[in-house]
Design brief:
six-stranded mixed sheet, alpha+beta, 16% helix, 242 residues
Length: 242
């Protein structure tokens, strides 16, 4: 769900599905219809994430957490992302949920892509590195251009929850003292099986293609409403901000 509140109201909801993969088990993953670093109807490729060079993902995120002093996040890392479908992918945001050895959430990396082929990572955690509880609000300054209808200023406010098999993420954009955009991603967890992927394929056969089409359709609607347009600035020099 996306809901723009200013300077014009625009709200839409689309069906979506994502994978949630414990990275410690990635290399052993063997599911019909899903290829890990190999072609299939669904595919998850290391080069789409992390260092983007095809190197293993878990060492990359471990190094990033260590570099940012998050030694507490030394447990499982769960990557929530859309896979490629029929080899095609545009992934607006992938989320890396970084836990400690007791399973408590300690940090989340939001890996953001824009339609200009650029990306940026927002690493969010409590300043004192305490566990992140449902409803806790984490903030990050906006430094990366995503939509031409919003400036690169203000901040994002994140909230994460997982309860009763429902996983939800809220990312709100605040600027000028108001929430200008509210986004929600929520869904029911299901076991990752060939049958579940087949059902996904039947229900959402063109999902990854539809993501880009819907982005441009909503942009056209905003342009027709004469929402102010902001030129794309240069991307930030750092790939990670916290």
């Amino acid at each position: 769900m996306h809901e723009r509140t200013w300077p014009t109201h625009n709200r839409f909801i689309y069906p979506l599905a994502t994978l949630r993969i414990p990275l410690s088990r990635l290399e052993q993953l063997n599911v019909p219809l899903l290829g890990v670093d190999r072609p299939n109807l669904f595919s998850l490729r290391s080069r789409d994430h992390g260092a983007r060079d095809g190197s293993p993902l878990l060492p990359w995120i471990r190094g990033l957490l260590h570099e940012h002093g998050l030694a507490e996040a030394d447990g499982e890392v769960v990557l929530q992302t859309m896979p490629r479908m029929f080899a095609y992918l545009f992934n607006p945001v992938s989320l890396w949920f970084c836990h400690d050895r007791d399973g408590r959430l300690r940090a989340v990396l939001a890996e953001v892509n824009n339609t200009f082929g650029e990306r940026h990572n927002y690493l969010v955690a409590h300043p004192d590195h305490r566990p992140i509880l449902p409803g806790d609000e984490l903030r990050a300054s906006k430094v990366f251009h995503v939509s031409p209808f919003f400036p690169v200023r203000g901040e994002y406010r994140f909230r994460f929850a997982r309860q009763g098999g429902v996983v939800s993420t809220a990312i709100d954009y605040w600027e000028g003292g108001r929430c200008q955009l509210a986004t929600r991603l929520s869904g029911h967890e299901q076991p990752l099986t060939g049958r579940a992927l087949a059902a996904w394929l039947v229900r959402l056969p063109l999902m990854t293609f539809g993501v880009v089409a819907r982005i441009h359709w909503q942009a056209l609607r905003l342009a027709l409403r004469r929402v102010p347009f902001h030129r794309k600035p240069l991307p930030p020099t750092e790939e990670i901000s916290s």
